[in-house]
Structures are given as C-alpha cells and as structure tokens.
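Researcher: If only I could read backbone structure tokens as easily as an amino acid sequence. Walk me, if you will, through where the backbone shape changes along the chain. I have put the entry right below:
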Amino acid sequence: MNYFLLTAVLPLFTVSFQPSSKNKELLKRFYKEVYVDWDMEVADEMLSPQFVSHDWPEGGQKGPRAFRDYYTALRRAVPDATYEVKDLLADGDRVAVRWEMHGTHQGNFPGIDIDPTGQPITLKGVAIYRISNGSLLERWVVSDLYGLLKEVRELSRP
C-alpha cells in the first residue's frame, strides 16, 4: 500500500522541474544568439513577460522590453560587445553562468562620468538564472565593475 502511494505521488513532483541539461542548453542558446549575435527577437522569445534582473533598479520595468532597453544603453557604450561563456553550471531550475564581456569603449556608460577611451575593455561576471516553463524568469548578476572602472580610468589618462 505505501509503495503504491509513493509511485502515485512521485510523478507530481518530478514533472514540474526541467532537467538541468535542458536548462543548460537553453542558456547556451541564449548567450550565443543574444549576447554574441545580438538577436533581440530571441530574447523576446526566451524571456518571460515577468523577467526581472535583480541587479537593475527596484520598481523598474520587467520583461523583454526592460532587457532590450538595458542592452541598448550598454551597446551605446560598447557597440561591439560580445559575451564569452567561461563556465555553465545547472541545478534544477537554476543555471549559473561565469562570463566575460569584451568590446571597445566607444560611448558613455549610463551613470558613469568617464569619457569614451576607444580602447578594448573586459567585464567579468557571474549570472544566475531561474527558469520556469522553459522561459528565463529571474536573474541575479555580480560583475567586476570595480575592475572595469579601474581599467577605463587607466585607459583615459593622457
């Protein structure tokens, strides 16, 4: 009797989680098609309408539109930006990505008062994504902004 109950209930718990390997493939595709090819239609497809990045200001926009706005501003500062995935780890509905962004500092970063240097720059970081029903729902990002600012300031000195 107990065995029957366990086999009847267990599928309810396993169906709600995507396999980690499927989530890793989702993020591999996202980074290639969005952060290398800059195909924002793929971002529209893969981001949940409720997508939120917890490193953005609280109370701001959510979803693909907010994502597009954020990266439009970033690409004004670094028009040739591309992301390189260094590590990709998955567990259940979470995928962690260690990445590097490479590009040329050709415009102003929003909120940072440093003139463009015209020089190559690198930003390193880690992002953790939460996936729900095959869509990216949440993201937490930690990046080495100090290292980037130090690099940009050194490049801007005469």
Observations:
- DSSP finds five helices and five strands in the chain.
